Give the backbone structure.
Amino acid sequence: MRTKLENILIGLGAALVILGIWSLIAHLAGLSKILLPTPAAVWERFLLILDHGYKGHSLGAHLGDSLRRLFLAYGLAIVTALPLGLLSGCCRRLRTALDPVISFYRPLPPLAYYTLLVLWMGIDDGSKIALLYLAGFAPMYISAVAGVMRIRSDYINGARTLGANSVQIFFYVIFPVALPDIFVGLRNSIGFMYSTLVAAEMVAAVSGIGWMVLDASKYLQSDVIFAGIIIMGLTGVLLDLLLKLAESRIVFWRGRD
């Protein structure tokens, strides 16, 4: 408990230092408010958006649209990438068939093929969800494969010696051992998908936090831009914390060797 409290205090202290430096630069450097608004100005604009919304939509609506797209794509990736990754880790032929496809498209920047998705599916949520799905699929798949490949053969042989069949070995040996790597993939995927979502909303959207930031940039509303960026960052931190909490509850034996 003491260590957690210390970590929280250190994090709050670092945030206060950053705010202090930001405020000093904004006040002493003589920069235009368009270039660098003060923290107070950003906070005031945030409260204004919270009360009155932005361009006809509340802040909750913008954030809700972004998270709805993210969670739909994230769920689709989980139910496809993880089973395929686990099966590929167990089956060499399936892994050999899928690895070239994953290796080809994984390094591609998502926005490089987003234009095609927009042409095929329009600027509505379908193209964004497809883009996020492709962005999150590879990290989940690779982590699941790595988790299975990391399993020591004597674990499986020991289970077979005790009379376990293939299904029991998968659910009681392979899957639990692969869970830590799976959670690494889940955390990497949601971070990558969230950054991709913001970029996608900046390219083709009519709502969402990314769209709000882009629209504000057209009118040089730096306080809105800063507020949007902070909201994005805090949302990403919260999502990662939720996954870390889930991991600590589900993979409770990790670190207890």
Notes: The chain is about 80% helix and 0% strand.
